[in-house]
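1st attempt posting a full record on here, be nice pls
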Amino acid sequence: MDKMWAGRFAKALDALADDFNSSIHFDCKMYKQDIKGSMAHAAMLGATGIISNEESEKIISTLGEILADIECGKLEFDMSSEDIHMFVEAELTKRIGDTGKRLHTARSRNDQVALDIRMYLRDEAAEIQGSLHKLIEAIKNKASENVYTIMPGYTHLQRGQPISFAHHLLAYAMMFMRDCTRISDAVARMNYSPLGSCALAGTTYATDRRMVASALGFDGVTVNSIDGVSDRDFCVELMSAMSLIMTHLSRFSEEIILWASWEFKFIELDDSFTTGSSIMPQKKNPDIAELVRGKTGRVYGDLMALLTTLKGLPLAYNKDMQEDKEAVFDSIETVKKCLEVFTPMLEGIKPLKDNMYRAAEGGFINATDLADYLVKKGLPFRSAYKTVGTIVGYAINANETLLSIPIEKYKEFSDLFCEDLYKEISLETCVEKRISEGGTGFEQIKKQIEYVEDFLNND
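the predicted structure (as tokens):
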């Protein structure tokens, strides 16, 4: 296929260089956005009189036919084309001759690709937000079933205080809700049309950039034409949001892997989201969670690759910027696949409530509540803290728990202890009385679930 820019050159591009230069094998993903952007551009050219209305209408109708042919499989991409833009334009010209050549008036591939990728990422961002909503819904449902399920809460991976399992799950809901709003913020800054910036300096034609922007659902146009073609901040910002989604999925995966181990045995994973061993018949491996955790590094790498590509580029457009697409496409696709498999895996998790409760009974995780008991009796907190530390030391040596130590022994440590201490340090009481906003108290958990429901209904 002849290159659109071949007139300047006496020799054809070397075959290896041509293949190295080509991007159609990955930017063909943007065919729909490229064609819709071209249709809007053609409509503007006709409306402003830059081309005739008849030519504009012919271009638009033929582009619609090309789009339909691609989507039904009638038209396949020509991988000898340099990129998706050249493929569409060549196919248009093939069908309607010189009229098709008028489409590129007052436009460059530089602003065309900048438009396409914004539109593509805007569409993909909406799809990922939908997947996040499904995951948040699954977390909320699992939390609603486990408000009164008690487990140990950890710091430093050491048992700290008793909490509701729902409380732990809802912490992840908050993370993924922030991810949703983070994507919305990124899209808001992305949603300005660069089309009309041309190669870098604008055009001599009296175009109507805002007409095109409005037709394509943008909030406005980029203000500076150099920035319009050279900006890829929106890619970096969205990929940063993708990296944080993977951070949250990876942390959640890590805990699922721990909880499913024999050492914890807090949950049972559904068989359909686990695998076995080729040599150890007893194994039930959390491979899906492990793969999600592993793919996190891949998304981080995509982000770092683009940041590194951009860091030394002079204005305006440089061919290096072709490297934005594979990185951002891979980041998006990886997150989509991880969310797609993670949500049903979570839905299939069976909490082993008795095991969680027994774990919460050990480790003296009601020690803070025992200290609070003494504070309520009038002892300064630091003195109460020291007294309870001494009691814990005794219990460890005597193989006792704070609930199994008899009251007579407690009184040896302080006269402030009475029989009511056992109710005060029961696991149920320890959880229920955490009444501060956002805490693990049962009523607070219900409010957090309502908060998540409101988000899902209004986001």
